[in-house]
Design goal:
37% of the residues lie in helices and 16% in strands. The chain is α/β, with parallel strands linked by helices. The chain has 2 domains: 130 residues, Rossmann fold (3-Layer(aba) Sandwich), CATH 3.40.50.1980; 151 residues, Nitrogenase molybdenum iron protein domain (Rossmann fold, 3-Layer(aba) Sandwich). A hairpin with a 6-residue loop joins strand 1 and strand 2. The radius of gyration is 20 Å and the shape is elongated.
Length: 337
């Protein structure tokens, strides 16, 4: 363990940030009306979005390769995972979300706490509690317990197991379209996806080309980010080098002092509980390995609040913009969400 890095390890951090293989995404031709629906794509077996047409019943294969049929636009929707919460509240009227993950009520990690506190959705802690709500669509993570999914499916309630271990911004964008298709909010999803992509493109275009690539370390408590993580893709989008990936790490893995000394990052980005960014930075600088990095010498240690740093949903653009601002200055109007 590294002294000074224990201050912020969200309970769901590992599930939130373990990445999967990056996927090259294609689309089928647009259906009538110009709506962009997700289609069978990607070279990663766990991220293959497959949907039918816009008519009902709507059909889509989930991450279990289970064909889910939705008879009509769902009005009582359950989310069982923190990032699914954020996808839903980005697209739907909040009243249609009747249950959420426990993280929705935790401002240390969630971007939708204000919605949860205002509308009081039930916490989807167990299948029996969820089923008493009479939902017409349940969205669970691909990392969820199989018994939860099996029980809810046995009652006939459409239960869709979503891939949630994103390794690219493109996967997040595609999932916006998927959630819109499943919930009958495809027009809102089209607008949200368009804005998401526009933000990514604008930030990427604003990054200086042909200059030195900043060497970046990301820290979530005592863990860092290797290849096949969303953080790695964000660093790449910003024209930087993720020293964790360069050092041979894959996924979300523990880091030690020797690694940090060897990698000697030029920038360090870390997460903290809301309101504790300065205290977290001080604890990081108290660690000798971090204090001797070029990042520390150049005052390039940036600590962001957990909801920004750990966003694994449409809110991931907040981290992209915050990092771009730190590295290159305030983005232009076109890069604002």
């Amino acid at each position: 363990m590294i002294s000074g890095l224990k201050s912020f390890v969200p309970p769901l951090a590992l599930a939130m940030l373990v990445g999967s293989m990056a996927a090259g995404v294609q689309r089928l031709a647009s259906p009538p009306g110009g709506l962009q629906l997700p289609a069978l794509v990607t070279n990663h077996p766990d991220f293959a979005i497959r949907t039918g047409g816009l008519e009902y019943p709507r059909k889509s294969y989930d991450s279990d390769d289970f064909l889910v049929k939705i008879k009509r636009p769902p009005q009582r929707i359950v989310s069982q995972f923190y990032s699914i919460d954020e996808f839903l509240y980005s697209l739907l009227p909040p009243q249609r979300v009747v249950a959420v993950s426990a993280s929705a009520y935790q401002p240390t990690v969630s971007n939708i706490t204000a919605y949860a506190e205002k509308y009081h959705p039930v916490i989807a802690s167990d299948p029996e509690r969820v089923l008493r709500l009479k939902p017409d669509l349940i969205l669970v993570s691909s990392t969820a317990r199989s018994d939860f999914t099996s029980l809810t499916r046995s009652t006939g309630v459409p239960t869709y197991r979503m891939f949630t271990s994103f390794s690219t911004l493109e996967q997040v964008a595609e999932t916006i379209g998927l959630v819109g298709y499943l919930t009958g909010t495809e027009e809102a999803a089209q607008a949200e996806e368009r804005q998401f992509r526009a933000t990514v493109d604008a930030v990427k275009a604003a990054c200086p080309a042909g200059k030195h690539k900043p060497r970046i370390l990301g820290l979530g408590g005592t863990y860092t980010y290797g290849s096949e993580t969303l953080f790695n893709d964000i660093v790449s989008t910003l024209g930087g080098i993720n020293v964790g990936a360069q050092g041979g790490l894959k996924g979300y893995d523990e880091v030690n002092s020797e690694m940090i000394v060897k990698w000697d990052p030029e920038w360090i980005f870390a997460g903290a509980n809301p309101g504790e960014t300065e205290q977290t930075k001080a604890r990081l600088l108290a660690n000798p390995a971090i204090a001797h990095t070029q990042a520390a010498r150049d005052h390039h240690i940036v600590v962001l609040e957990g909801p920004v740093f750990f966003a694994d949903s449409p809110y991931a653009t907040s981290l992209l913009k915050a990092m771009a601002n730190a590295l290159y200055g305030e983005p232009d109007e076109g890069a604002k969400r």
